[in-house]
Amino acid sequence: MLRGLYGAASGMITQQRQQEALSNNIANANTPGYKSDQTAIRAFPELLVQQSGGQNTIPTTQGGFNIPGSRQLGGMNTGVYVQETIPRFSQGDIAESGMPTDVAIQQNEVPDENGAIFFAVQNEDGDVRYTRNGNFTIDADGYLVNGQGYYVLDEDGENIQTDGNVDTITPEGVIPTADGEVTLGMQYVADVNTLTKEGNDLFEGDAEAVPAEAAYTLQQGALEQSNVNTEQAMTDMMNAYRLFESNQRVLRVYDESLGKAVTEVGRLT
């Protein structure tokens, strides 16, 4: 009976984690460049159940003798858990914003199945992070920064000085400046599953220069929208809620049965 309690409780915890991930997706449905999270749910290792204590008769010339026997009953799972939460890196829709500092990545083709192209930014600790959110602005010193005030990097890993104005960003990421031109430092990650999601649309991991065989374009005055499917997310939330309620009812039944075992069966003995 206690095993049933643990199984129902693990199901409730799993659906709660699922609800949290879906709620976060819906909350960021309008966040540019946001990549939705999906949960990987797994069962605990399966147990092999067998019945023991029976008797098997071994025939002999004197009539046979009995030895302790057992019989396999089958497998049993003791519960489920959320193994990990994985971002989904499918391309989001491109929407016009009208802001000259906004840039959207239209990723057309990459050499690796799980590869993706990112903007590179530098956080307050000087570490490089990667993002698909091209909602950039110009700070008081004339540098191109993202929404958190992190410097956007060029192809040499340097901060981009715009002299307070950005008129043109070419599809290749070239920005004309008073001193010539700079190019946005686009980075490529061959396997996005190796990235760690930090929040604020930032990812940590290892990246490299975009390979020549990759095909992409940058669109000025536009933003890549989140890839959250709100209708599907709402449907999944309802399913998770129903599963949570089902496990809750099972837990209540076990609790009532335990209560009777303590108050009624115990009184009879």
UniProtKB/TrEMBL annotation:
Residues 114-171 form the Flagellar hook protein FlgE/F/G-like D1 domain. It holds the Pfam family LlgE_F_G_D1. PROSITE patterns: FLAGELLA_BB_ROD. Residues 219-262 form the Flagellar basal-body/hook protein C-terminal domain. InterPro entries: Flag_bb_rod_N, Flagellar_basal_body_rod_CS, Flagellar_FlgE/F/G, Flg_bb/hook_C_dom, FlgE/F/G-like, LlgE_F_G-like_D1. The keyword Repeat does not apply. SUPFAM superfamilies: Flagellar hook protein flgE. Keywords: Bacterial flagellum, Cell projection, Cilium, Flagellum. Residues 5-35 form the Flagellar basal body rod protein N-terminal domain. The keyword RNA-binding does not apply. It is found in: Bacterial flagellum basal body. Belongs to the flagella basal body rod proteins family. PANTHER family: FLAGELLAR BASAL-BODY ROD PROTEIN FLGG, FLAGELLAR PROTEIN. This is Flagellar hook-basal body protein.
